[in-house]
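Q: I'm writing a short explainer about Type I restriction-modification system methyltransferase subunit for a general audience and would like to include a description of its predicted shape. Could you first generate the structure from this sequence?
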Amino acid sequence: MLKLVLTGVWVCAVTLGSVYFSMQYASAPVMSEADADRRASEEYIPGEIITVPVIKEGAVQGYFLAKLSFSATKEGIAKLHAPLRQVVTDELYDMLVGSKFVDLADTGSFDLPTFKVAVKDGLNKKLGNEVITEVLVEQLEYLTKDDVERVANSQNRPYQKPVPVVDKNGNVAADKIPEGAVKATSSSH
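A: Of course. Here's the predicted structure. Afterward I'll give you a sentence or two in plain language.
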């Protein structure tokens, strides 16, 4: 018993020592003064989920779901004539409705870095100034029209009859309870 207690104390001492020394030698990443000034002049703007229809050949082919957040200059945000979230939503609709960002034939060709740069450039062009400094993607999904219909129809699925259980002799065992289950149930009471 004494060996077990001493082993526990030894393990605790080693653990605490390793945590202490790792904290002593760990250091925060060094940020240059220019980076610190830039970060102090920026503000994080959380995004909201928007659903943009993907239109091809005059019909809706699917839906592009996006939740984008932004890093923007405080000075630029103060000069805006409309709230940034509404401007972002408007620009994303302008960019994505009827665009080639989502190719239905080859969804694997989507280029996220290009998309982020295009959103940033499009927003800054619309705002008339370098307001957006970074685009952060929180959620990005594409649902085909068939995916949406499949989910919608699964809630209205008609009741399906249960499949009967057949025992090894080919008899339908719908009303039979195996003997082992009865004994196990009755013995537990």
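A: For your explainer, you could say: The chain has seven helices and four strands.
Q: Perfect, that's easy to follow.
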